[in-house]
Design goal:
By secondary structure, the protein is mostly helical. The protein has two domains: 64 residues, PSPTO4464-like domains (Diphtheria Toxin Repressor, domain 2), CATH 1.10.60; 86 residues, Diphtheria Toxin Repressor, domain 2 (Orthogonal Bundle). Helix content is 78%, strand content 0%. The protein contains eight helices and no strands. Helix 1 crosses helix 3 and helix 3 packs antiparallel against helix 4. The protein starts with 13 loop residues before the first helix and ends with a helix.
Length: 187
């Protein structure tokens, strides 16, 4: 008896094939929404990159629809896994940046509310922070809040926290580069 299941590829249903094509087309739509810097970092073929850039300039509904169909067809010809991974990285970077801003806003609000634990958290997170300047900003923001004035100092406090965060990230980035350079053996 002959076994027909040997070396037999899985046959996809028409519905499964359509779902995969729609997913690729949606990925193409996501590519069109990226900015130029993000798009440059993605592993795309030249033809696909040109099609994505062309779709950005199309505003007529029919033309844009046809271009998105074309991008979907081009997506079928490439391996979507590396593109999906790069898109996930771009999304994650955005989500991480948003989470950092939310954390800074939370600290600002806690500092203005008089939470001393939050002040210690900020000092622990940013040991290079100017403690006197930070406390002065907190005091002024508290006075503004109590007086019902516009939150000018509150904004200054947030900007200062954001500057501290950026400095810490730069420092961490440069230290990471130095460690990787130090670990490379010199012949």
């Amino acid at each position: 008896m002959i076994d027909n299941n040997e070396n037999h590829e899985e046959i996809k249903s028409k519905s499964q094939f359509k779902r995969e094509m729609i997913a690729l087309q949606e990925m193409g739509e996501e590519l069109v929404r990226l900015n130029a810097e993000q798009l440059a970092k993605l592993p795309l073929t030249d033809e696909l990159r040109d099609a994505v850039l062309a779709a950005r300039g199309m505003h007529a509904r029919g033309a844009r629809y046809r271009q998105m169909q074309y991008i979907g067809r081009l997506m079928r010809e490439v391996d979507p896994a590396p593109i999906q991974e790069a898109l996930d990285t771009v999304r994650n970077r955005h989500n991480r940046a948003t989470a950092l801003l939310h954390r800074l806003e939370k600290w600002r609000d806690q500092l203005i509310a008089g939470d001393h634990e939050a002040l210690e958290e900020v000092f622990a997170a940013f040991p290079d922070a100017d403690r006197q300047h930070l406390r002065q900003l907190v005091r002024n923001a508290q006075k503004e809040y109590e007086a019902g004035k516009p939150p000018k100092t509150s904004r200054e406090l947030f900007r200062y926290l954001r500057e501290l965060q950026e400095e810490a990230q730069k420092k961490q980035h440069t230290e990471g580069k130095q460690k990787s350079q130090d670990s490379v053996p010199v012949e």
